[in-house]
Write a structure and sequence with these properties.
Layout: E1 2-7, H1 12-21, E2 27-30, H2 40-49, E3 52-55, H3 59-70, E4 78-81, E5 93-94, H4 103-109, E6 112-114, H5 118-132, E7 143-148, H6 154-162, E8 169-171, H7 181-188, E9 195-201, E10 207-214, H8 224-235, E11 240-241, E12 263-270, E13 275-282, H9 286-301
Helix pairs in contact: 1-9, 4-9, 5-7
Amino acid sequence: MARLFIDGEAGTTGLGIRERVLPLAGIELISLSDADRKDERARLDAMRSADLVVLCLPDEAARQAAAMVESLGDSAPKLLDASSAHRVSPGWVYGFPELSAVQAASIASAKKVSNPGCYATGAIALLCPLIDVGIIAPDHDISINAISGYSGGGKAMIAAHEADGGPAFEIYALGLAHKHVPEIISYSGLSRRPIFVPSVGHFRQGMLVSIPLFLDRLPGRPSGHEIVEAYHERFAGTLRVRPPAGISAAEIEPQARNNTDLMDIFVCANSLYDHAVLIARLDNLGKGASGAAVQNIALMLGLPDPLASHKELHHA
């Protein structure tokens, strides 16, 4: 049995990981009492006895916890950080198994892995395959628009939306310096900083990430079908990929992947106007957080992939 300690188990992501881990064979969960969760000695003892520690903490607390783990030297357990503290840090492997053909193996052999951000997961999935094959140039002007359920916004946002008369919709991070942008640049292959505009809707969970494109401004003036083929080639057997919809495409709502660890990719293209919109749909608490963490936990502990039964190429 592999021993797992979730530091920050009582938070939204920690609870989601615990819920997903409990049914899995081969994992023994180490838990602390409410009184011991903030006791540094108790936490360090739990870390020392674990094979893998998962950090579900605010960024600064995650940095401090990572230092505690590293203080154990050669006996230190493996480390998975679900915060944004280490996503572009040297020595940390990015925990997006579908990023490349070798990424899952890199995660499996790593001592330190950083779980991706929810918005970044969608944006990188949309951009990386197209940049890799030259459909989008690394220095292309990119704008990313996204909407998430309010559950990813912390206690204050959750309370505001669950109160009577909560906000219907909010655009935020209008300083244009959202913390997910550095990892989007680092792992998508972009060399020019994109404009990223996140928003929150009045629903608990679910996410859409969308990127509009002028196809006639891209190298080779690709069609929507060529873009879809690039996604099929990259993600065959790992993520659901949907072919391009025409001008009469149905609306895409953000909650269809809730309570799953799957992600859909849509390409909505109009050849008459040379316009396209790339869309990723995922659960911000699933593939965007806890579900991705459990994928990485399984890889790091040498356990069967918990999503293996869902890895299919889906045609809409």
